[in-house]
């Protein structure tokens, strides 16, 4: 099956004449002669951008997602390609409406008219994994119904198998292969795709994000209607707004685009550093803007998570970057284990400075994070810095954020926008504020431990040492006394802090 899938990929590439992207290079022009026999079935009547989009659609969801990511990188892509690939965000050819209705009736076990008050059979949006129809619930609430594409699981399984083979080849044939951890990166991608195929999981992610941003002035998230949800169908609140890609319509609606761009940066950092849970598929097809200027998030199939350790090191890195403290950036990479322990701080500091210094104090239109990441990749190769698979989704999301920012406000200064927020967040994590926050989080544990301290102290004091020699016994007793004093101090401190927390909460 893998061989058949590989042959199909080769056939589609040749069918839509995508080999021209490769054969345009001088070193590969000799291959023109070898491919002349394929001219009889090639499609060359349409522009290259259209052919690229059609080929990605024909190859399936993984390739469509790749095209979606490319469409947000207008600084790296020719305009004709970026414009055409943007259609992949929500204009992938839909599957027949009759199949959608049949899937719904099979899922609910009853005719569709008994499930919804009304159902629009023409899909309003169609993406690589699912398509969306509007409906009205029996109680009159407007809803959006998301339905998985039939047979999508088997297609993704074959593509993931091919990616795993490619990862194996990268490790075996490329000197840098092991450092790049291709299998781990493919594993992260596989995990996110499998998650996207379970709409109950997506519904729970939407619910979590909505709870995280309850009453937020930045972001709106649709309510999930759980009674209608299954692993193949997700029903949620219908949202009304303007697609973020329609910049002229946003201006006409009186939306402050500069403020909108700044809010987008703050929304991203809030998700990443405050919650450690972020929307990792933020292409324009998944974002609208409400009439009051708030973002509306859609499609929660791919969500990223970060541990407290990852958040801490990332925040320190960002703040050090903003302060141009490149030595601290180098030290953090070594402390976190991302760079080898024997890395020279001064050399890594100089290398990072050479990448970052030229881009400060410049508006977004003059900065390409795609090229910055490429330079940082070259540095990581030189110093043996390993790829962190858990950060791949974050890096992808950063590229999407930059692409959106370029469309909304090319004069946006990402550094000045993000620095105050991150500094404020770090102040809440360290020092006495961080201590009190940790104390509140651990208060239930302290409440369970405190009543046990007297018994634990008594057990320690009456421990049987009869079998010990006098000298050994003396040493143990001295050590016990130290432990006893330490335990008593800890008990008093914890009791005082717990009492203070109870009083503060009551007030």
Q: How would you describe the overall organization of this protein?
A:
The protein has 4 domains: about 1-90, no CATH class; about 155-190; about 240-430, no CATH class; about 435-505. It is about 55% helix and about 10% strand. The chain has 21 helices and 11 strands. It has helices at about 1-15, 20-25, 50-60, 60-70, 80-85, 95-110, 150-175, 175-180, 180-195, 200-210, 245-250, 255-275, 310-320, 325-335, 345-355, 370-385, 390-410, 415-430, 430-450, 455-460, 470-505, and strands spanning about 120, 125, 130-135, 140-150, 220, 235, 240-245, 275-280, 285-290, 295, 305. Helix 3 (about 50-60) packs antiparallel against helix 4 and helix 14 packs across helix 15 (about 345-355). It is globular, with a radius of gyration of 28 Å. It starts with a helix and ends with a helix.
What general form does the structure show?
A: globular
Query: What is the total domain count?
Result: 4
**How far is the first residue's CA from the last residue's CA?**
67 Å
What is the residue-averaged pLDDT? 76
Assembly state: single chain
Number of strands: 11
- Give the helix proportion (percent range): 55-70%
Low-confidence stretches: none
Number of helices: 21
Would you tell me the structural class of the helices and strands?
A: alpha+beta
Indicate the proportion of strand residues.
5-15%
Major pleated sheet: 5 strands, antiparallel
Rg value: 28 Å
